[in-house]
Amino acid sequence: MNEAILDKMDFEKLLEMSFENTFKVADLVEGTIVKIEKSGILVDVGGKTEALLPLWEISNLPFENPGDVISEGEKKKFYIVSEANEEGQIKVSLKRVHLAENWAKLEEARRSDATVEVKVASLVKGGVIAEIYDLRGFIPASQLRTGTPHENLISQTLCVKVLEADPKRNKLILSERLCVQEERKKIAVEVIASLEEDQVIEGEIVRLADFGAFIDVNGIDGLLPISEICWHKVKHPSDVLTLGEKIKVKVLRIDRDLNRISLSRKRMEENPWVQVESRFEEGQVIKGVVNKITDFGAFVCIFPGVEALLPVAEMSQEHVNPYEMLSVTQEIEVLIKKFTPREKRIGLSIKDLNRAEQH
User: Nearest Cα to 311, choosing from 327, 285, 293, 329?
Assistant: First the structure.
């Protein structure tokens, strides 16, 4: 074997060794304390790399002399704070070793899809900050069971799944929703089996969305559609419901195949359209409040939960602009021109009211 081949083999071996001794931030490395100085502690971590342990990275507990905490020749695990500088020296830490071990626990939880408990520390834009293993993680609003951060969450203990655990970027992302979904699957069949349609139950409002509210019923989430919140129209569930509020609802539908339940709060009350049948009649003059104005007319509340239509053509003998003539929340006097409550249709008129008054 010639010298050229030997030189090449030696070079490849040295190159391989250099890669083996590459130290990265947040890695744990074993080392031996070589020398204790006032400026810091020198640590032998193997290879040709020298490590510096700054005094402030020795311990979280106060001490007078480094020798009180560590001694030369002692072998320990060190946390790499920074990669090698131009002189080939890396910085390490003793006090952060437990953090590295905690990051490792969280990464293992992520890989095994395990559930961990965290404590909510504060609300921030787009989610909440939670504490676990002396670390702080972020739960995005989309990963909260409620879908919205709120004050009642602070100091609460939540069960979460680990979505991302990156010590190098100090990035810990958690999900409560995935944890809740898993728990729901376990108990859904049993809870669904115990329910019947038209049954009245109590639940807690755990999430508000544009299309309705989710109610915790014995550990599973039932949907309360916006149309079933109350008899009058609601722009958004948050206008009448509050997160964390406990309410009574009626079981509207049960889908035992998909383990889903649909709920209703308005059906806990008597249908207002049934109530108005005996209260009003055609030709009757009543007062109402304008709820909404459109190009074709105005919707007027004449009874809680009951809206009647006042068409533009019935506002005046002359052509009028409904937006100029009326305003929302204005109380007006009207005449009931058409009355078919069973079809949920009531037509109003101001024009005929004025004509009647003239005669």
Answer: 293
Taking a C-beta distance cutoff of 8 angstroms, is the pair 294, 254 a contact? Answer: no
What is 194-268's CATH topology? OB fold (Dihydrolipoamide Acetyltransferase, E2P) (2.40.50)
The fraction of the chain above a pLDDT of 90, given in percent, is 38
Q: Of 89 and 301, which is predicted with more confidence? A: 301
Q: What is the DSSP letter of 274?
A: H
| Sequence spans of domains, the chain | 3-95, 100-178, 194-268, 272-358
**Which tens digit of pLDDT belongs to each residue from 124-151?**
999 999 999 878 999 999 899 877 787 8
CB 125 within 8 A of CB 138: no
**pLDDT, tens digit (0-9, with 9 covering 90-100), for 218-249:** 888 889 999 999 888 888 998 889 888 899 99
Per the CB < 8 A criterion, the answer to whether 213 and 251 are in contact is no
The reply to whether 272-358 shares the fold of 3-95 is: yes
347 Cβ partners below 8 Å, 6+ apart? 308, 309, 310, 311, 314, 336, 337, 338, 339
pLDDT tens digits for range 307-331? 999 999 999 888 889 999 999 999 9
User: What pLDDT was estimated at residue 323?
Assistant: 92
pTM: 0.52
3-state secondary structure of 184: helix
- Collapsing DSSP states into helix, strand and coil, what is residue 200? strand
What CATH class has 3-95?
A: mainly beta
Looking at residue 348, what is its pLDDT?
A: 94
| CATH homologous superfamily of 100-178 | Nucleic acid-binding proteins (2.40.50.140)
- Contact call for residues 280 and 336 (beta carbons, < 8 A): yes
Distance CA 335, CA 248 (A): 37
Calculate the alpha carbon distances from 184 to 81, 179, 195, 246 in Å: 42, 9, 15, 19
Mean pLDDT of all residues in 5-34: 64
Per the CB < 8 A criterion, the answer to whether 215 and 244 are in contact is no
- C-alpha to C-alpha distance for 155 and 243, rounded to whole angstroms: 16
Q: How far apart are CA 130 and CA 351, in angstroms?
A: 62
